[in-house]
Amino acid sequence: MAEKTSQDLLARLALVPRTLEARGLDAAPLIRDKLWRVGDLPGAALLEVILRDEIGHVAIGNRWYPWLCAQRGLDPVAAHAELARRHCAPRLRGPFNIEARRAAGFDEQELAALQTG
Length: 117
Ligand SMILES: [Fe+2]
Fold this sequence. Notes:
Elements: H1 9-37, H2 41-72, H3 76-86, H4 98-103, H5 108-116
Helix pairs in contact: 1-2
Bound molecules: fe (ii) ion.
Residues 21, 54, 57 line the site of fe (ii) ion (FE2).
């Protein structure tokens, strides 16, 4: 995805922090819990650090993506759908880490849209 979006900052923001890294927010608790269950407590603690760091990475996307959409006169939701289609981004599937996504700056409309598919 970094290569696919290397020529367009808007696509990079939409599809790396706001899609793939946001997916990391969803996946980290599941992996952390699996590690915990098999007794890998240091591994589980590392996943906590990764999750916390990832919120900051996603927040960068959520800070600049709407700004750049405004600069270009684009609707953020429609632009995201078009960029995801154009660059064959993976389709998002739950369960979603709504709390972490909220902390990373996704707005309530986007969070509601995720949960209704
Ligand atoms: Fe990251």
